[in-house]
Write a structure and sequence with these properties.
559 residues; eight-stranded parallel β-sheet; five-stranded antiparallel β-sheet; 18 helices; binds 1-O-alpha-D-glucopyranosyl-D-fructose; binds calcium ion
Length: 559
């Protein structure tokens, strides 16, 4: 297997709006992020993924870009960006930008020109369709955020396609001019020195010719006509050939609803259209059919889904992107752990799971201190465009009860991940001296960086485990093998190469339980090298709630 920096790295995602405010306007910014680089360095982070910082009217917090070569006024200036990039590089930290090119903002000059009733070269930058009547849609596709994927533009007298919000019209990648524009944008940032991109919804950029109607689905009708669409591989190869291959970069593509086998068509070492993909299988363990139909998750399902990705990527020479959180997901400790009694234990268990699999681990801001979901009190607390659209859809079209909608949104809404970073127990958690754009989680008084830095904490565990991983490359490259597939509470796996063998044991339950290890593992001599309780011999089989033990195989008496 090829060894490279991005495989050995640990990524930290900054959602700039909620990370650190520097000027008291209540909005996180680049100067603020710059001031926290030492914190990230001390944590052991080697790569930052910066969620979009480009000029944007903020319908979807920056995922709707109106100028790809300028910085959002809220976040500062290009000089601030340059200072941030330089500050990161000085500390040996690489920076990935978020490349959002499936769509632009409707306020982007291309779209403004495109919507003109006159024929302009920009007409074909987007998908415009004429129907007999404004109320008749060109096809039955629905949007990721609920409702129709088409909006009628009165100026032009036509409908345009938007797979996300109406303020995010989809770009027409079949137009070679669009692809050239995208390449120019990528070069602009690479020439500035950025180290790669997280490519937003990149697997849906190619839509089937003729935009045929989709089959019936509860949500997202039309999906089969653009997910891993007909020319997506051609377009990504073109980007590789013309741009990425000329730089030493890392690319990670966001890939909704992709199977591990499908993923290989993007990331296998032979194809290398992308270096890795952000997959969703393990994020779907607590929902059915779509993310809003919530069901209980099980340890069995979670570990088997993750193990499948481990195995398929290894066999097919691909590489995993490991994550439990990002700005679109609820907080992992609220989802898979225990935010009350076993906050430390379950937070460190999730850290261990994340950092001991094969792949590049991604940590989302606040995850390292065990930030939790927000205690929503009313519908007004939901600020996210998706939450608001889902609410309207649920209420008006599906006639769902407020109680049901409130419960569902409280659990799954993306707002959970977007509350300000909790730095200290100062007012507004030290995020801002002004009024934060989004309310701080009231638990900041106990869950915050300053407190966590004082002693044993989820944060110190992350730091120690990252350091351990960086000095034991078996945890990066070693072969993965799952044991006790059917056990309802334990996750047990090994990581192995010529140099070392590790055995990871996670008790994913709030109870004290006994583990009986498969005989094959008992034939070895193991020593515990890390635990969230006490390190102890493998023969002691009683595991505390959410206990983890990281064992290392002892090969000779001298070691
Ligand atoms: O997300 C796309 C996506 O598929 C989902 O994760 C999405 O957030 C939503 O939950 C679907 O129900 C990416 C970005 O990560 C997200 O923040 C943007 O809103 C979206 O693309 C549009 O750019
Ligand atoms: Ca600010």
């Amino acid at each position: 297997m090829k060894h490279t920096w991005y495989k050995e790295g640990v990524v930290y995602q900054i959602y700039p709006r909620s990370f650190q405010d520097s000027n008291g306007d209540g909005i996180g910014d680049l100067r603020g992020a710059l001031s926290r680089l030492d914190y990230l360095k001390n944590l052991g982070i080697t790569i930052i993924w910066l969620s979009p910082v480009y000029q944007s009217p903020n319908d979807d917090n920056g995922y709707d870009i109106s100028d790809y070569r300028d910085i959002m006024t809220d976040f500062g200036s290009m000089a601030d960006f340059d200072a941030f990039l330089e500050g990161a590089h000085q500390r040996g930290i690489k920076v990935l930008m978020d490349l959002v090119v499936n769509h632009t903002s409707d306020e982007h000059p291309w779209f403004q020109a495109s919507r003109s009733p006159e024929i302009t070269p920009y007409h074909d930058y987007y998908f415009w369709r004429k129907t007999e009547h404004p109320n008749k849609k060109p096809n039955n596709w629905t949007s990721f955020f609920g409702g129709d994927a088409w909006d009628y533009d009165a100026t032009k007298g036509q409908h345009y396609l938007h797979l996300f919000s109406p303020k995010q019209p989809d770009l027409n990648w079949d137009n070679p001019r669009v692809r050239e524009e995208v390449k120019e944008i990528i070069r602009f940032w690479l020439d500035k020195g950025v180290d790669g991109f997280r490519c937003d919804v990149i697997t849906i950029i190619s839509k089937r010719q003729g935009l045929p109607n989709g089959r019936f689905r509860l949500v997202l009708k039309g999906f089969e006509h653009y997910a891993n669409g007909p020319r997506v591989h051609d377009y990504l190869k073109e980007l590789q050939r013309d741009v990425f291959s000329h730089y030493d970069v890392m690319t990670v593509g966001e890939a909704t609803f992709i199977s591990a086998t499908d993923a290989l068509s993007y990331v296998s070492e032979e194809r290398r259209e992308l270096d890795m993909v952000i997959q969703f299988d393990h994020m779907n363990v607590d929902s059915f059919n779509n993310k809003w139909i919530i069901i209980p998750w099980t340890v069995r399902k979670l570990k088997n889904v993750l193990a499948q990705w481990q195995t398929v990527m290894a066999k097919g020479h691909g590489w995993n992107c490991l994550y439990f959180e990002n700005h679109d997901q609820p907080r992992s400790i609220s989802r898979f752990g225990d935010t009350q009694r076993y906050h430390y234990e379950s937070g460190t268990l999730l850290a261990t799971y994340l950092l001991t699999q094969q792949g590049t681990p991604f940590i989302y801001q606040g995850q390292e201190i065990g930030m939790t979901n927000y205690p929503f009190a009313s519908f007004d607390d939901f600020l996210d465009v998706e939450a608001r659209r889902i609410y309207t859809l649920g209420k008006q079209s599906l006639h769902l009860s407020d109680k049901f909608l409130f419960k569902t949104l409280s659990y799954m809404s993306r707002d959970n991940a977007r509350t300000p970073m909790q730095w200290s127990n100062a007012p507004h958690a030290g995020f801002t001296t002004g009024t934060p754009w989004m309310r701080v989680n009231p638990n900041y008084e106990s869950i915050n960086v300053e407190t966590a830095l004082k002693g044993k904490s989820i944060l110190s565990f992350y730091r120690d485990l990252i350091a351990y991983r960086q000095s034991h490359h078996t945890l990066v490259y070693g072969e993965f093998q799952l044991y006790l597939k059917h056990h309802p509470h334990f996750v047990v796996f090994t990581r192995q190469d010529e140099e070392e063998t590790f055995l990871v044991v996670l008790n994913f339950s709030p109870r004290t339980i006994a583990l009986s290890l498969p005989r094959i593992l008992c034939n070895n001599h193991w020593e515990s090298v890390m635990s969230n309780y006490e390190k102890r011999p493998i023969e002691q089989v009683i595991y505390h709630p959410y206990e983890i033990q990281l064992f290392r195989k002892v090969v000779s008496s001298s070691q």
